[in-house]
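call fold(seq) -> tokens
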Amino acid sequence: MRPVAPILPAPPRSRILIVDDEPGIQQSARRILARHYDVRIAVSGVQALEMLAVEPHDLAIVDVRMPGMNGFEVLKAIKTEHPDTEVIIMTGSISNPEEKLVEAIRERAFYFINKPFEKTVLEVLVERCLERQRLERENRAYTQTLEEDLDQARRFQKLLLPRAFPPMPGLHGVVRYVPSERLSGDFYDFYPLGPTRLGVLIADVAGHGISAALYTGMLKSEMQWVFQDWEHPGALFDRINERLKSLVRNRYITAILAIFDLEARRVRYVNAGHPGFLGHDGRSWESTGTPLGMLPDPRYETREVPLAPGGRWLFYSDGLIEAMSPDGREFGLERIRDVFVSSHGRSPQEGLDAVYAAVHAFTGQTALGDDATAVMLEYRP
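ret:
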């Protein structure tokens, strides 16, 4: 036997409310529209609003001249109390028709027609009105679904990040991640490498959106696959670039990896084109190679600086230096350097608070246009 296809319920018929005190117009409109729609009749604006309060309608066809409330007053009330209900204004003889047409459009009526109307004109007008309404509802539903998906993606992206700086005697650190409304490519992570060594990574995928966020997840995954290269940070970035170049299309990743060795009193680092790294004297640690995924066969140089007591470092993403003032100026490297250097003698938490307070004061707002990530460390043996 052939399987019997399920009988699907018919889609609900659109509801149309005719608001007119002339019986002839009521019956004419009902006769034209009742074959395809559920048609109701209201003889006044007050009755129409009462009916809409009880049962929503997709469309109201409203006469201008009625006792009590006129058609424009009904239109305003419907758009205020039932904004999802479309309205078509109709009229017989009226003075200044162009002025009334402008008023109807200004009050968000779908259209303005004259009585008596042609059967075909009314049918096509109602059909187009309800089609536009259906598309708007689908767009709103799609937008809501997309916003929910993006919200879930933001939460997932945040789960990729460590919640706090890992405990390590002598090395004190704080981190702050302030997400924007957009999905971003900011990423940071900490890698305990034994009792006296710690790897610190901060990275930024060029651009925004879902693909940028996905690349941060790929970077986290790739870092787990190259653990055998932790002794050689430059070679580690070589391997990551090799793995990413086949995945990253038209994007690149700037990144800094610094390995703090408390026993050897040194910091070894590799910088793939990332601008956000300041030493305790305010000096920027220059790049030692191109951004990851940009070139097929780069070479990343590992550099080394001493780890002196009282040394302090700031890692940050470009969401801080590119924060904009109301008159269009960027916060910039010099300002963040000045705040960082002047925070010496205060705790890393107080220093990071000072950086963000300065950025917010410069922009004049608490919400930034991009993700703003920063990590501040201090060595106090």
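The mean pLDDT is 83.
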